């Protein structure tokens, strides 16, 4: 005899086997499946037919797996490209004294390179730290992201308040200050790592 709840649980297990393991994603897919089943039952279909039709409407496991994997890869590639571009357009001018860095001293060069390295290394360190944290909910991710935004704003306010109170800043000094002002951006890699970790963990319970 067909048992709808057992069929839904088995379908969810197959999704997990296809490496779609993020709890939020699984919950959303299951919610869509249940909504489709309810709608089909109201049309007069039996539970088994409604379940099979709803599964077909949502899509094959391979398609879901490919779409989910492609989304995660695209997000990683965009972020890695962004941090790579940031490193490139800042390190090269500093090393070769181009543009605003034409008149930088050796000491300013070191401080500028340090700011870039702190940002880049902080990005990968934050991502790693986020991945080793325990599983967190979507609410915790939002709180972590909001905290990162707040810290970035506080850091910028403190830094630029100091700049405004200081006279006779030349262009290279201002650019150097901006590089340090951008360094806390790497904090945003922590919620990124947390999200990636959640995508790779099997949820402990099914609702």
Helical amount: over 70%
Oligomeric status? single chain
Give the helix/strand class.
mainly alpha
Principal-axis shape: elongated
Main sheet properties: none
Tell me, rounded to a whole number, the average pLDDT: 76
Strand and helix order: HHHHHHHH
Specify the number of helices.
Answer: 8
Rg estimate, integer Å: 25 Å
Q: Report the uncertain regions.
A: 201-207
**Count of discrete structural domains:** 2
Annotate the secondary structure layout.
Layout: H1 4-17, H2 23-42, H3 47-58, H4 61-96, H5 106-132, H6 138-164, H7 171-182, H8 189-199
Question: Outline of this structure?
Answer:
The chain contains eight helices and no strands. By secondary structure, it is an all-alpha fold. The protein folds into two domains: 56 residues, no CATH class; 131 residues, no CATH class.
């Amino acid at each position: 005899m067909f048992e709808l709840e057992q069929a839904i649980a088995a379908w969810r297990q197959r999704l997990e086997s296809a490496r779609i393991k993020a709890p939020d994603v699984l919950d959303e897919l299951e919610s869509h499946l249940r909504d489709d089943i309810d709608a089909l039952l109201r049309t007069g279909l039996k539970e088994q037919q409604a379940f099979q039709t709803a599964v077909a409407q949502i899509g094959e496991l391979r398609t879901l797996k490919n779409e989910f994997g492609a989304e995660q890869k695209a997000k990683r590639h965009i972020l890695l490209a962004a941090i790579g571009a940031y490193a490139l357009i800042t390190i090269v001018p500093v090393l070769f004294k181009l543009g605003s860095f034409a008149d930088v001293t050796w000491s300013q060069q070191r401080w500028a390179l340090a700011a870039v390295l702190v940002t880049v290394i902080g990005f990968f360190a934050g991502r790693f730290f986020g991945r080793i944290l325990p599983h967190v909910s979507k609410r915790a991710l939002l709180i972590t992201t909001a905290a990162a935004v707040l810290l970035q704003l506080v850091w910028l306010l403190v830094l630029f308040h100091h700049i405004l109170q200081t006279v006779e800043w030349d262009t290279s000094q201002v650019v150097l200050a901006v590089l340090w002002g951008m360094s806390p951006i790497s904090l945003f890699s922590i919620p990124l790592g947390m999200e990636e970790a959640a995508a790779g963990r099997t949820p402990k319970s099914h609702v």
